[in-house]
Amino acid sequence: MPNIKLQSLDGEVFEVDVEIVKQSITIKTMLEDLGVDDDEDEPIPLPNVNAAILKKVIQWCTYHKVKICLSSTTI
Question: Fewer CB within a 10 Å sphere, N or C end of the chain?
Answer without folding.
Answer: C
